[in-house]
């Protein structure tokens, strides 16, 4: 069953060109769906339209098969977590969490039970009588999560909730959000520009660019089977290496950095063989990332053999099964036998 459906949704401001045009998207019930893409691609606008904070110019949005036309944000059975926490500074943590329950006329005994349960889950039970200004960024975000969770909504909407946190805390809260999703078994829709967040957290990923869906699928599908050059170059750290070809059946060939093998001598075998020169190597703990200049341009290669360091002239070999091909319209095509670059 689909929890959320967007049918032919468009969004334009005044007489400016549409930033979302004829968008069709179905979000599965119970999924952790991540909307990811570069700044300005329309992902936050989509989230705000689902929430009812922005009105779609045309098209229809359904939640639980009910059309959201004329349905106020407070009546959509959703909860939203923002990038900037949006906490009331003069209220205690408990008052911030309780505020929405009071507005919905939840009895006091049930309010107390919900707050205790949720605060134990997110680990903020010791901070209930403190003001937000006395909390760290991570603690404030947990308060924002608790405020959303305590409503027991059908859908959680999250707009870059971790972007203001440092790297270590982001990693910790990513894990906690994954565990939270599994525990609640609720639909999460999460917006980020960080493809690492998308790949590590999402059960389903929607990759957007200029208001259009470039690809939708699981993290594995997007990583190993990109449907176009944009997907290939956006997903992955570093992204897929893309080279132009001289083959009549394809315009581009690509390979992931970890699929390249390095040799000091030419390897006469099927697949892709490039000659190049090592520019730099970066020790990344469990792997070494090489930047190598070739006649076709600079490529990245990840090697997991830490006992041997390559310098100078080098040959890069990629098995034919690991190659991805794209046509002149930058759309993926079937894999071929050999690459001619």
Keywords:
single chain; 341 residues; alpha+beta; Rossmann fold; OB fold (Dihydrolipoamide Acetyltransferase, E2P); 2 domains; six-stranded mixed β-sheet; five-stranded antiparallel β-sheet; 19 strands; 25% helix; globular
In helices, the fraction of residues equals 10-25%
Beta-strand percentage range:
25-35%
What is the CATH H-level superfamily of the largest domain? P-loop containing nucleotide triphosphate hydrolases
Low-confidence runs = none
Annotation field: number of helices = 8
Q: How many domain modules?
A: 2
Number of strands: 19
Strand order of the largest sheet: 6-7-8-3-9-10
Would you state the CATH class of the largest domain? Alpha Beta
Query: What do we call the CATH topology of the largest domain?
Result: Rossmann fold
Largest sheet: 6 strands, mixed
Tell me, briefly, the overall form. Answer: globular
């Amino acid at each position: 069953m689909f929890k959320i459906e967007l049918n032919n949704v468009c969004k334009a401001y005044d007489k400016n060109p549409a930033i979302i045009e004829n968008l069709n998207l179905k979000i599965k019930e119970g999924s952790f769906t991540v909307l990811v893409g570069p700044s300005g691609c329309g992902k936050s606008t989509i989230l705000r339209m689902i929430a009812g904070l922005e009105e779609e110019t045309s098209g229809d949005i359904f939640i639980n098969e009910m059309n959201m036309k004329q349905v106020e944000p407070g009546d959509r059975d959703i909860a939203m977590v923002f990038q900037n926490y949006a906490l009331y500074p003069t209220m205690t943590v408990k008052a911030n969490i309780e505020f929405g329950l009071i507005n919905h006329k939840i009895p006091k005994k049930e309010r107390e039970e919900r707050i205790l349960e949720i605060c134990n889950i997110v680990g903020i039970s010791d901070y209930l009588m403190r003001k937000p200004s006395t909390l760290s960024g991570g603690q404030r975000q947990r308060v924002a999560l608790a405020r959303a969770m305590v409503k027991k909504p059908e859908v959680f909407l999250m707009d870059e909730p971790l972007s203001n946190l440092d790297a270590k805390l982001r990693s910790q809260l990513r894990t906690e959000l994954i565990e939270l999703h599994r525990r609640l078994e609720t639909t999460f829709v999460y917006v980020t520009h960080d493809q690492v967040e998308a790949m590590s957290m999402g059960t389903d990923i929607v990759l957007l660019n200029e208001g259009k869906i470039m690809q939708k699928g699981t993290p594995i599908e997007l990583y190993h089977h990109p449907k176009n050059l944009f997907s290939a170059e956006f997903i992955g750290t570093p992204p897929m290496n893309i080279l132009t070809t001289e083959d009549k059946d394809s315009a581009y060939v690509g390979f992931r950095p970890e699929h390249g093998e390095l040799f000091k001598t030419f390897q006469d075998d099927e697949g892709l063989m490039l000659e190049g020169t090592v520019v730099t190597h970066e020790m990344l703990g469990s792997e070494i990332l090489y930047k190598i200049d070739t006649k076709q341009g600079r490529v990245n290669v990840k090697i997991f053999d830490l006992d041997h360091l390559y310098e100078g002239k080098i040959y890069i070999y990629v098995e034919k099964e690991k190659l991805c091909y794209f046509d002149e319209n930058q759309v993926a095509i079937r894999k071929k036998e050999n690459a001619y670059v």
